[in-house]
Design brief:
Strand content: under 5%
Radius of gyration: 19 Å
Structural class: mainly alpha
Strand order of the largest sheet: 1-2
Shape: globular
Largest sheet: 2 strands, antiparallel
Distance between the termini: 44 Å
Number of strands: 2
């Protein structure tokens, strides 16, 4: 009983780690440009597919294939993020936010259908981060893969925290998001800052795709589901609140894991939306509150 509860907690934490990485990247773009990147879920899916392809280039007996391909996946996805910024945001930066929404939806559909046409709709198994062993602690067995997923995501999240709070780029990003005109006036390259934000967001999405691909598989239709979870996490955590979105992502994962263990995944999905509606009815600004006027 104790071992089952411990494994359930680790399962929830591992799933929450994936959701949190997607949600962090999602909110980074909102913070930078004030618009939603609806292609973000497809970027996470694409990251999983890139990980699947990169793993085929490695010897099959490596003990940590996922960790080895992770930097390459994040680099490739950062370039993809720059492409999304150049196609769906830069030409429309002076247009109403709805124009960016529609453009990113179009880019997301292009990615989804491109992957579907290129490699087919079948689910793919990504590389494990480390070996498939089990860690025994106090009589409880915990899978190495899930523990590695949690640890990897925690390091990436901590890195984002340091980048945003302790570096010059983080200060520039916050300044550009709060008042772009003033930021330009004091010499901050707003276009570069926005482009880097898209790249960082896509790199985090790619890491999430890699972490997801081994435990849950990855197929071309996964992007819309991940996008929806990131959007819900942002709503629960407070629109535009980066750490609120991360906490919201973990809350979603815990809720889904517990309900799925008691009933089923379909029941968990249905009840999740009921809970979201209840949260919005009680606190439209989200649990960590921000002015509703910025919502999209």
């Amino acid at each position: 009983m104790i071992e089952a509860a411990a494994q359930l907690a680790v399962n929830a934490a591992a799933l929450g780690a994936v959701y949190a990485l997607v949600a962090l990247g999602f909110v980074l773009v909102i913070t930078a440009v004030g618009a939603v990147n609806f292609a973000h879920g497809e970027l996470a899916m694409l990251g999983g597919m890139v990980a699947v392809g990169a793993a085929t280039l490695l010897p099959t007996d490596l003990p940590v294939p996922g960790l080895l391909v992770l930097p390459a996946v994040m680099a490739v996805m950062a370039v993809a993020g720059l492409a999304v910024a150049g196609i769906a945001y830069a030409p429309l930066r002076r247009a109403p936010p709805t124009s960016v929404f529609i453009a990113t939806i179009a880019v997301g559909l292009v990615i989804q259908h491109g992957v579907n046409a290129g490699i087919g709709p079948e689910p793919r198994l990504g590389p494990p981060l480390i070996d498939a062993g089990v860690l025994r602690f106090a009589g409880i067995g915990l899978a190495h893969q899930q523990l590695a997923t949690i640890a990897t995501a925690a390091m990436l999240i901590a890195g984002v925290h340091v980048l945003l709070q302790r570096t010059r780029f983080g200060r520039r990003l916050r300044a550009a998001a709060q008042d772009p005109e003033m930021a330009r006036a004091i010499g901050i390259p707003v276009r570069v800052t926005v482009a880097v934000s898209f790249a960082l967001a896509a790199a985090l999405a790619g890491a999430a795709g890699l972490l997801m691909s081994n435990q849950y598989l990855v197929d071309p239709s996964d992007g819309s589901l991940l996008m929806l979870k990131a959007y819900i996490a942002a709503v629960i955590g407070g629109w535009g609140r980066i750490w609120g979105a991360a906490i919201g992502a973990f809350a979603i994962a815990v809720f889904e894991t517990l309900i799925a263990a008691v009933a089923s995944y379909l029941v968990a999905e249905a009840l999740l939306y009921v809970v979201v509606l209840a949260v919005l009815a009680v606190r439209p600004q989200g649990l960590f509150g921000e002015a509703a006027g910025r919502r999209a």
